[in-house]
Amino acid sequence: MKIHGLTSGAVRVKHSFLYPSPGRRRQLDLFTPGAFSDPLPIHCWAIEHDGVLRLVDTGETEAARNVPFARMEVTPEQELPAAMAEAGLALDEVSQVALTHAHGDHIDGLVHVQARALINETELDFLRSPIPRVMRRVLRQPLPPRFAPDPFVLDDGPFGAFPESRSLSDDGRIVAVATPGHTPGHLSVICIDDAGRHVMLAGDATDSLEQLHARRADAVGPDPKVHIATLETVLAHCTQHPTVYLPSHDPDSAARLAAGTTVQAERGDDRRDSALGLPAT
Questions:
Q1: Has residue 281 been placed in a domain?
Q2: Are the C-beta atoms of residues 59 and 109 closer than 8 Å to each other?
């Protein structure tokens, strides 16, 4: 198995997005004046396994519009085709795309892909509900042209600490797990690599590893309690299995993937996996 980190530009988000206020100001502050972060990567992931090439998310495109709490920095040269080529991969060889959730910086790159796309049925139902439909109009965030992913159900039972899962590969080494919070139907994809580590392609389950350890709900999700419960589940999984945790906007995700750095939830920090023979940090 080989996992490639692909980057399609960057995004700046408000400080209140990353560190939300409690109570009613949690979402209100997204729409009031405030400072923005440095550029954060927009990652998606390619997985080569058993002769099959899969994508987890598809990144953003130049056509993306800014919203009050996020400013996109994407050029045509940074979109999915160029990112794939830079990794030495052929876009027309992709046979499956798993979408973590239906926000533009994770799905807009579907305009470049002919392969079948999959999305959690819960996420698709939420996407069609009134509030998301209104917000897409208000924020001028349309779905990409010909957006028609196939819904699927996480009905394979528990996987590690996660109560709901669905195998995406015949051998069970690529598994979608439910990680609701950022959106109700958000999922993450866990790959069991050749060293037996669990590589968690976490989408926007958190924006960073720091947020995971802080058990901090974000400013976007509809129910902070659901989000925090998911973070507890992720950390519980990390105590059971050596896990390389890779959120899509964490500036350290690419380095963490390259080094095989796993999460040590009990200590609240990172460590170099002992299988790599690297010292603890």
A1: no
A2: yes
Give the CATH number, domain containing residue 185.
3.60.15.10
Write out pLDDT tens, residues 234-252.
999 999 999 999 999 999 9
What is the pTM assigned to this prediction? 0.93
pLDDT at 265 over 80: no
Do the beta carbons of residue 133 and residue 197 sit within 8 Å? Answer: no
Instruction: Answer with the residue of higher pLDDT: 105 or 280.
Output: 105
Residue type, 201: L
For the chain, the C-alpha Rg in angstroms (whole number) is 18
Question: Are the C-beta atoms of residues 257 and 248 closer than 8 Å to each other?
Answer: no
Structural domain boundaries, residue 47:
2-274
Residue 213 CA to chain centroid, in angstroms? 17
Q: Which residues pair with 45 in a beta bridge?
A: 5, 56
Tally of domains within the chain? 1
Six-digit token string for 8? 């399609």
Cα pseudo-dihedral 100, 106, 109, 113, rounded to 10 = 0
Is the Cβ–Cβ distance between 246 and 270 less than 8 Å? no
Beta bridge mates, 56: 45, 98
Look at residue 117 and tell me if it is in a domain.
yes
Look at residue 99 and tell me if it is in a domain.
Answer: yes
Residue 213, SS3? Answer: helix
DSSP three-state, residue 88: coil
166, 175 Cβ separation under 8 angstroms: yes
Phi, psi for 187 (deg, rounded to 5)? -130, 160
Residue-wise pLDDT for 52-78, tens only, equals 999 999 999 999 999 999 999 999 999
- Would 280 be classed as within a structural domain? no
